[in-house]
């Protein structure tokens, strides 16, 4: 056999061995190369992020349930939750107006999928429009046919169905609220969500701890709703966000490495009279192509920066665009990092020793 033939044979054998050793059929692990979602293990899907790696690889598609992994016996503010920014602004959302929608999107999954994959905070923009309450982007401070997504009741029905099917889960809604008096109360009532309502009377004052998650579940008070309109706390029993929460600057201003300042409506991040901390990390103009990079290492770095800015408090909510896109762990790993820090002082919730809150970490 000639040298050329030997080399060709070796090359062919190498290719065959590579093909034989490649994973498939649900056996591919995090960052293994893949050709379809079915190649990846549970909790992963096959995704291409040119900024982070070549080809397609298995990346995370779901959250770690901190309650099931460790416990749900601590105050609500001792846990962290993945939050979807503009959760309603979904690619391909069915058209509900007579003319085509001309506006940007921030997510790819319907609300049900977002919740099933572990999002527990939903940021929603609510407007009076077409005689009802709608989810909408604004143009000139108003909702229009070209910026409207759909009636709020459709989204809230999905949330009600999720809470009914998952009796130990808690969902937080953070509303940018442009709805007139009693409009929200009516649509939440129509959606059957009042039976899950967490009352303002049980929310802590002056930075105190929230009730235990286990008690919130036992009392079936599993829906927290915050509004941007101060008067609605007294008039409709909807919590005024800035009375209970601090939040960093959203958009490009919140993505400056090494800097974490509060958004205009929020008090200073180190204001410890507010016991919840929310970290935004998404650009001013949504960019699906770059979101896989945004939702990775830079996001984790910002959580550390904002921890220092918030008087050494780890965020309870981390809000992102296109939450499933990443270079590997993404926003799901960000939530795991926050829960590890909050619950046991470890860098990842999976490193927490069950039952320990003293910083005992496994390798």
Automatic annotation (TrEMBL):
Swiss-Prot/TrEMBL keywords: Signal
Gene3D superfamilies per UniProt: Phosphatidylinositol (PI) phosphodiesterase
Keyword Signal part of the UniProt annotation: yes
Domain of life: Eukaryota
InterPro entries: PI-PLC_domain, PLC-like_Pdiesterase_TIM-brl
Entry keyword annotation includes Cytoplasm: no
Signal peptide boundaries: 1-22
One Pfam family it belongs to: PI-PLC_cat
Protein name (Swiss-Prot/TrEMBL): PI-PLC X domain-containing protein At5g67130-like
Organism: Hibiscus sabdariffa
